[in-house]
């Protein structure tokens, strides 16, 4: 007989044992288990993991390397002291006469002050002459090294050249650190000297050669190579002993004491004598900390934030696409974990922790590579100055922050893939099915709204700026101005966010439109529309890179064109201009010297521009030529009257209209082409020969000198003209009218009205030389220009002339090529990553296509169209977004200003290359790379 027994209600020992053996439910054990699973999952998908680590490591390498380079440029207190003193103990320099109130700063010895009257600013104490030799204040038998500076002229293979000279025993071993001994021997006599590497190159000399100084007259044998540690290797300096001739031209003097330095009380006594002292021990008593200028610190923080933000944004997008592919390949494993009871939160943390692990790995690798790359970068950037870098300083606190930032970036990159991976149906995931992607109806609306808001923000900001600048007293720090500026900057960012939000919708539109162009196109665009989690982040990353390039190209080209318009041309491009100035400008000797100096450069043509001196040059109390007591000025037409209350913008007073601008200049007919840079038309030359004037197309001037084919000249008393700039003019002394014709020139030149020498004599225009211009088929050598500058700068040689090579404004083309190359590399990298992920995820599809007879050409064509869609969409959107802020900026500028930026200068061919050329290059490259041989596997079901 059997019985049914009641089940025991108490706990058994076996149950207690089972409960004790169950996993701990605390947070830390669970987290450790999830970390272990995440580490194993990243190792199983090593390819995708290495990609994510590389994506994180590259920007972290740049950030850490840049931080090390910056920190190595910040001197410690010991570095600063060694740079000032070398191995010496103190440095003395008279800065004032004896004054009991003089004190120097303990923080900065070169900052000093004396007591001054609060009302007048004059010194309270009697002003005395500085001490000639402060070494007399030192204890007896104190060793002193006196060093000074001068400017000398030396004989060079190309003629003569100016060199900096350090006078005194700068080669003394106690000054090592302030001066750097490179090679050779130290001078032992008064006829021996040393030279810097730059000076040796300039003189075409080497150790053992003799250098000849022409000013002052001296010769020295070069015994070694020495340089100022604070100057570059290219600086041209000679180090010479203190001979009588060199001491006579010495400009500054400094005294170093190798074995003595003052106490704090002694320093006060030196200050009272008008001497400041840089003392080693007193300086090192300060707290040893690097001082960073607040402006530099802010610029560094801003640049770091921008680079970190942009690179983090790109990494999140591209690594997010990689995580999206990786999590889909983990779909079955995650479904198995879910089927045995793993909660959704645990699965999500598992994927997030994969991003954390890979972010940590990328941060550590990037920081290590950045530190390793910083040293060769410092060597490459070293120009010989001690400030190039003071030492190899690694900011460990900064590297820790960079690694933490990398962890955050990796975690954020895995956020959306983790959310998507845990939202699917477990049974479908277990059998390998994938849900078709559905387009949310609200996404296109929100995206279009954000796109419209982005464009509207930039336009509104530009219009507000235009209104503020048009006001009588614009306040550039006012809240409306700041808000308008931020609107211009934020507009394209909102625009790109809108493109991302509407990305899937844009892909579906492209798929519908492009499906009609053949099988390869249809398969490519439909694959893109079916995988927005992979495609949208990728083209958003490309759009961000192209946005920066588009804005930079537009900004460089537009600002370069504006700079070219506002450049103050002294003559035609490639010419050498010698200007005559000062009280000697009417001297025939000065005129002959100016022409001779220019002809020494062997020009192909020489032209002389003659005219009257400016009024303030001949209005002194000394005797002047009778004919220079009056001046001729052309009348200007076409400008608004400043006295009219309705006038807004540029205007002129009645006196300004009658005064016009500068007086006419006289140029010989055969020299016009040299001065203008172009040959005037024959019709203009006929007017010129018949006593008329040429009016240059000067974009600087407002209004015009021409009125019914003629110009009106008024004769004024010189003093009246000078007073007329500020007050009402009296009646002119006379008036005459000349026929005139306008002549266009390649550039806006500093003259507006040109007459022939015969016409100048007929109308009484003084014809003193003002400018001499030399034209060349090939630009003169730099040594020739240096010698010309030197002849103009040596006192007593040519005190009334100065020279200049007119090279024109810098061309923007090198910067445009650099920007295009840099963004091309970024787009190539981002596109390669996205297209590589696409090929990995399409392997089952490739196998299916091959199984049903697809040819390799068809598969290549699919790859080509995938690249066109991905890179093309990102490039077009990025280019448009980059033009928007420049459009907003130019809206806020006064286009009547000659130097204002204008959208007419937008580099459309360069932008077309960015929007169209880069996608085509990427598509061809993707077509040339053959598809991987497919593995014939089953086709994954789509539920």
From TrEMBL:
Its main location: membrane. Residues 308-423 form the ABC3 transporter permease C-terminal domain. Residues 1-26 are annotated as: Disordered. Residues 160-249 form the MacB-like periplasmic core domain. The chain crosses the membrane at residues 48-70, 297-323, 350-375, 395-416, 445-466, 486-514, 535-558, 815-837, 867-888, 908-929. It is a multi-pass membrane protein. GO terms for molecular function: transmembrane transporter activity. Pfam families: FtsX, MacB_PCD. Keywords: Cell membrane, Membrane, Transmembrane, Transmembrane helix. One of its GO terms (cellular component) is plasma membrane. It is found in: Cell membrane. PANTHER family: ABC TRANSPORTER PERMEASE YTRF (PTHR30572:SF4), MEMBRANE COMPONENT OF TRANSPORTER-RELATED (PTHR30572). Belongs to the ABC-4 integral membrane protein family. This is FtsX-like permease family protein.
């Amino acid at each position: 007989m059997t019985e049914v027994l009641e089940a025991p209600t108490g706990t058994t020992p076996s149950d207690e044992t089972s409960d004790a053996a169950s996993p701990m439910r605390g947070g830390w054990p669970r987290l450790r288990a999830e970390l272990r699973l995440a580490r194993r999952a990243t190792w199983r998908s090593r390819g995708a993991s290495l990609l994510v680590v590389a994506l994180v490591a590259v920007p972290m390498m740049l950030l850490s390397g840049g931080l090390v380079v910056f920190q190595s440029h910040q001197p410690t207190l010991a570095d600063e002291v060694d740079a000032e003193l070398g191995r010496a103990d103190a440095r003395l320099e008279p800065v004032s006469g004896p004054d009991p109130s003089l004190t120097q700063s303990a923080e900065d010895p070169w900052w000093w002050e004396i007591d001054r009257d609060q009302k007048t600013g004059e010194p309270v104490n009697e002003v005395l002459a500085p001490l000639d030799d402060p070494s007399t204040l030192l204890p007896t038998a104190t060793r002193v090294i006196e060093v000074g500076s001068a400017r000398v002229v030396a004989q060079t293979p190309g003629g003569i050249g100016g060199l900096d000279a350090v006078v005194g025993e700068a080669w003394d071993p106690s000054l090592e650190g302030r001066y750097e001994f490179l090679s050779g021997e130290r001078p032992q006599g008064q006829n021996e000297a040393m030279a810097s590497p730059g000076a040796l190159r300039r003189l075409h000399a080497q150790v053992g050669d003799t250098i000849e100084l022409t000013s002052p007259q001296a010769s020295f044998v070069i015994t070694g190579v020495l340089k100022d540690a604070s100057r570059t290797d290219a600086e041209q300096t000679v180090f010479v002993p203190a001979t009588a001739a060199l001491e006579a031209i010495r400009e500054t003097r400094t005294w170093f004491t190798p074995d003595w330095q003052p106490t704090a009380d002694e320093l006060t006594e030196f200050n009272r004598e008008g001497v400041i002292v840089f003392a080693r021990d007193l300086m090192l008593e300060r707290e040893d900390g690097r001082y960073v200028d607040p402006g530099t610190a802010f610029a560094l923080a801003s640049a770091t934030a921008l680079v970190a933000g942009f690179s983090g944004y790109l990494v999140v997008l591209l690594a997010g696409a990689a995580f999206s592919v990786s999590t889909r390949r983990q779909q079955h494993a995650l479904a198995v974990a879910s089927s045995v009871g793993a909660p959704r939160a645990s699965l999500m943390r598992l994927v997030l922790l994969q991003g954390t692990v890979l972010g940590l790995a990328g941060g550590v690798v990037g920081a290590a590579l950045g530190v390793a790359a910083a040293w060769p970068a410092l060597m490459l950037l070293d120009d010989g100055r001690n400030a190039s870098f003071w030492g190899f300083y690694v900011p460990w606190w900064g590297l820790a922050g960079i690694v933490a930032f990398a962890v955050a970036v990796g975690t954020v990159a895995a956020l959306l893939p983790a959310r998507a991976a845990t939202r699917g149906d477990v049974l479908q995931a277990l059998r390998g099915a994938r849900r078709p992607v559905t387009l949310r109806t609200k996404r296109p609306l929100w995206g279009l709204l954000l796109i419209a808001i982005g464009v509207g923000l930039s336009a509104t900001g530009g219009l507000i700026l235009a209104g503020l600048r048009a006001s009588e007293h614009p306040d550039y720090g006012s809240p409306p101005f700041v808000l308008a500026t931020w609107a211009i900057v934020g507009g394209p960012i909102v625009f790109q966010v809108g493109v991302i939000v509407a990305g899937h919708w844009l892909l579906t539109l492209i798929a519908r439109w492009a499906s009609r162009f053949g099988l390869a196109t249809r398969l490519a665009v439909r694959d893109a529309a079916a995988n927005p989690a992979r495609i949208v982040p990728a083209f958003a990353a490309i759009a961000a890179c192209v946005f920066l390039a588009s804005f930079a190209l537009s900004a460089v080209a537009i600002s370069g064109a504006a700079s070219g318009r506002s450049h103050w041309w002294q003559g035609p491009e490639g010419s050498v201009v010698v200007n005559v100035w000062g009280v000697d400008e009417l001297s025939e000797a000065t005129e002959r010297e100016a022409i001779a100096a220019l002809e020494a450069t062997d020009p192909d043509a020489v032209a002389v521009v003659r005219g009257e001196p400016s009024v303030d040059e001949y209005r002194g109390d000394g005797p002047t030529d009778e004919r220079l007591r009056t001046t001729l000025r052309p009348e200007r037409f076409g400008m608004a009257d400043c006295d009219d209350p309705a006038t807004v913008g540029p205007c002129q007073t009645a006196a300004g209209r009658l005064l016009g601008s500068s007086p006419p200049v006289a140029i010989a007919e055969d020299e016009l082409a040299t001065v203008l840079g172009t040959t005037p038309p024959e019709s203009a030359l006929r007017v010129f020969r018949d006593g008329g004037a040429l009016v240059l197309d000067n974009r600087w001037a407002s209004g015009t000198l021409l009125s019914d084919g003629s110009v009106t000249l008024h004769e004024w008393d010189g003093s009246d003209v000078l007073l007329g700039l500020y007050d009402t003019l009296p009646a002119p002394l006379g008036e005459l009218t000349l026929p005139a014709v306008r002549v266009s020139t390649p550039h806006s030149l500093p003259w507006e009205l040109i007459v022939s020498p015969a016409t100048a004599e007929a109308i009484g225009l003084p014809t003193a030389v003002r400018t001499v211009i030399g034209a060349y088929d090939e630009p003169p050598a730099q040594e020739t220009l240096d010698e010309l500058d030197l002849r103009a700068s040596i006192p007593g040689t040519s005190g009334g002339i100065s020279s200049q090579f007119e090279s024109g404004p810098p061309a923007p083309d090198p910067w445009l090529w650099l920007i295009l190359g840099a963004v091309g590399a970024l787009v190539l990298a981002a596109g390669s990553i996205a297209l590589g992920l696409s090929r990995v995820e399409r392997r089952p599809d490739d196998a299916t296509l091959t199984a049903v007879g697809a040819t390799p050409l068809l598969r290549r064509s699919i790859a080509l169209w995938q690249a066109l869609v991905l890179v093309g969409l990102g490039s077009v959107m990025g280019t448009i977004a980059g033009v928007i802020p420049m459009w907003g900026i130019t809206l806020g500028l006064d286009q009547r200003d000659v130097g204002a930026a204008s959208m007419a200068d937008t580099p459309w061919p360069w932008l077309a290359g960015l929007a169209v050329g880069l996608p085509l290059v990427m598509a061809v490259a993707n077509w040339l790379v053959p598809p991987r041989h497919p593995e014939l596997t089953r086709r994954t079901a789509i539920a």
